[in-house]
Amino acid sequence: MRFFRNYSRSPAAVVGLLLLLVVIGMAATADWFFPQDPLNLAGRPLQWPGANPRFWFGTDNSGRDIAAQIFHGARISLLIGLVATSIAVTVGIVIGAIAGFYGGWVDDVLMRVTEAFQTLPNFLLLLVFVSIFGSELLTVVVAIGAVSWPAPARLTRAEFLSLRSREFVEACRTLGMRDRQIIFREILPNALPPVIVYASVVMAVAILLESALAFLRLSDPNVASWGNLIGLGRDVLRTQWYVSAIPGVAILLTVLAVSLVGQGLNDALNPRLKGR
Amino acid sequence: MSAILTIEALGVALPPGADRPHALHDVTLELRAGEILCVVGESGSGKSMTASAILRLLPPGVAIDGGRIMFEGQDLARASDAEMRAIRGAGIAMIFQEPMTALNPLRSIGDQIGEMFAIHTDLDRATIETRVLALLEDVRIPDPRLAYRAYPHELSGGQRQRAMIAMALALSPRVLIADEPTTALDVTTQAQILALIRDLQQRLGTAVLFITHDFGVVAEIADRVAVMQHGLVVEQGNALDVLSAPQHDYTKALIAAVPPLTAPRPRAISDTAILRIENVSKTYRTGGFFGRNRRVTRAVRDVSLTLPKGGTLGIVGESGSGKSTLARCIMRLVKPEAGAVRLGEIDFATLTPAQLRASAQRMQMVFQDPYGSLNPRRRSGELVAQGPMVHGMPREQAMARARELFALVGLDPAATDRYPHEFSGGQRQRIGIARALALEPEVLVADEPVSALDVSVQAQVLKLLAELRERLGLSIILITHDLRVAVQVCDLVAVMKDGEVVEHGPIGRVFEAPEHEYTRALLASVPGRGFAAGRG
Question: Cβ–Cβ contacts within 10 Å for residue A3, how many?
């Protein structure tokens, strides 16, 4: 309960949460408002928003309903964000925890691998993965997760480095606990808050990465994602700019919402940092 | 003598939601020219808050809400920020408990002391340098020129504190506030710093407000004493009067908690050894890629000791003497490179990790830091029940055992579902003891179990350890830097220096007729030694 009070103290965090709830609401009600496949042709192409009361946000260059694509696209964006973040954070935590806990050569090896991933630009690496494994939605999501784990890994490692020398860890050892138990049941809960906060950044970046891929028409063309819509609008950018702008705003607001929630979580989980 | 700093009915309010509305309530103190006034109290008594209030360095949310602080005709409680800046350092200077954190690690000592002159005077650089060197000489730093160029981490703790004192004295302040300046130091260093403060105060005539929790230190250095409890001054007067005839109950309790340094009559201890430490050595190697900058620290050298069944062996020494490393070698938290730790027929030093986990319950440890040694995310009952559960006891039964143990160590069994941060330091240490006892060990290794606690709480925890030893037939190894702690519970004592045991034997014999020179130096450094002996 105190957590919620701490959280709601920051207006920005509340705005972020509301925005995020709107996006989740859109994803949840997509089938109810737009029961048809959003990729079906719905009317004359390139109708401006408001020109036809049937299409709130107008139609794109092949005559598909933009509003339907935005609502259904919310699902895809959230799905990409959540799944890719879970992959990145899980891999990152396991690698970071093991590296930080054992130190020595284990740490050296794991950190060199992490650095190898980090020195390559994320997006370039993602392009490589997608061009090798194809651009099905699942592949894209896994590839985004696979390029995003180094930062959570380093964060977890740093937390473990400071926690592993604490006396409570030694106490667990003297009780005869196994390393696995000490790492995941004793130290990890203490190391989690900054990682959870960072997960919001990973999620925002994951959504952006997918849109960037889609903008280059390298994402899965068979799903109604916001990025695909932007990519489609590229051809008519100078005249019918709304085709790209509307999903662009949707992405902007979603990423903003996720970041604000992350910031709010940070303040609520580390109340001491407040007022700085 | 005339008062130089007068505090009248000072009140300091805490933010709402703190454990009490006022950090200080109606505090009236008087510091006279050329005297040392000791403010004594336990943690939370408001003694450090008094120092912060005088310099108006209160933490955010805490404010003076009444009274006056008169210094040279000026009321510091109402002075402007600019006026306060002129007074801090020049009129009233302060030295802190931990010189490592009070000094800037990136700047040389000479540079930092010189800054005092650079800010408050318009001397040129050459004059500043000669003044700083003179100051360093004044505080008796060996080789002032070297110290001038040194960075804080290159000096020892005692030297750093000397540098802090030099910095505080740079502008010849009329008042010096010392907030626990020797608490972080070893006893022998502490004795030197106390002598230095005494000496400087007499030579320069500075008035010193000395904040401490230790009545031994008070006996050593104070002219007058003010005793604080819960933000109130409960007693003040001449040091001799207060120490020999305390009026207030709290003062009496505090003084009684300082035990005499003479060992009680020896208990009968068994002849059979339960734990034999044989020629244990541990060396730390750091750095050294291709042999460059390699540093080798021989933390423990060839230590052999025997713990009799049911007895208590104290291992005393200063920081860096290797006593904590020895404790960790015994527990196999670090693996000694040579030697054996024999408990019965098992040699702990050579067990495999799996064997070690299985034998863990025979030997358990109590840790130093009551905050760091309990996982903050687990309930206290769970912490105690964890050990038995690791070794296969069902959860229900382990929790029931935890409640029994809570009662055994003097905690409310109903408190098992609270988190560690909801307990006080002394209570947390009891949880740590309960956790160690949960596995019914034969040997308990206690690493500085009371050094983070207030004196009155120390006495309670030590009493608990002594009781448990009787009731459960425990054998205890007690690591401590504090000879007063050792003397209260130990049957045998081993004195360590630079990784070696220089002297060991029954504690009465070692303390009354020390054979080794270092033991004698250690005993002579205990503050207030004469006071405690005279009282006994």
Answer: 11
